[in-house]
């Protein structure tokens, strides 16, 4: 009986992750890559963290982006941080890096 619940949870988790990853790919393509091109940024995500980079400047908080005059980047960070997907999981964890190669 326990195995049946475990299998069901595994199926739900896999389906959920797949759908979230697809939305993250779409968000990356339609929102983040254009922002990175517009502001000459890159985006790094991994190990439970994510941020935008410009030169030697690390932009990881909405307030910092707004201070730099990057309101649209601040709005993107708000979505990445505040769209909770699970108890301790946010949308930004699912978005892949954007490198200079992606911006060509």
Can you give a write-up of this model?
- The protein is α+β, with helices and mostly antiparallel strands.
- It has one domain.
- It contains three helices and five strands; from the N terminus they run αβββααββ.
- Strands 1-2-3 form a three-stranded antiparallel beta sheet. A two-stranded antiparallel ribbon has the order 4-5.
- A hairpin with a 2-residue loop joins strand 1 and strand 2.
- The mean pLDDT is 89.
The number of helical elements comes to 3
Q: What's the main sheet like?
A: 3 strands, antiparallel
The geometry reads as elongated
Q: Which class of secondary structure composition applies to the elements? A: alpha+beta
Order of helices and strands: HEEEHHEE
Number of strands: 5
Number of domains: 1
How large a portion of the residues is in β-strands, by DSSP E? 15-25%
Outline the low-pLDDT stretches: none
Strand order of the largest sheet: 1-2-3
Please state the average pLDDT score: 89
| Ends apart, CA distance between termini | 53 Å
Give Rg in angstroms.
16 Å
Helix residue percentage: 40-55%
Fill in the keyword field for this structure.
104 residues; alpha+beta; three-stranded antiparallel sheet; two-stranded antiparallel sheet
């Amino acid at each position: 009986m326990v195995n049946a619940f475990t299998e069901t949870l595994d199926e739900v988790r896999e389906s959920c992750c797949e759908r979230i990853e697809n939305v993250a790919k779409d968000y990356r393509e339609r929102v983040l890559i254009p922002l990175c091109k517009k502001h000459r940024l890159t985006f790094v995500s991994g190990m439970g963290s994510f941020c935008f980079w410009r030169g030697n400047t690390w932009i990881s908080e909405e307030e910092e982006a707004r201070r730099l005059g990057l309101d649209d980047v601040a709005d993107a960070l708000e979505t990445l941080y505040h769209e909770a997907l699970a108890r301790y999981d946010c949308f930004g964890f699912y978005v892949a890096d954007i490198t200079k190669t992606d911006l060509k």
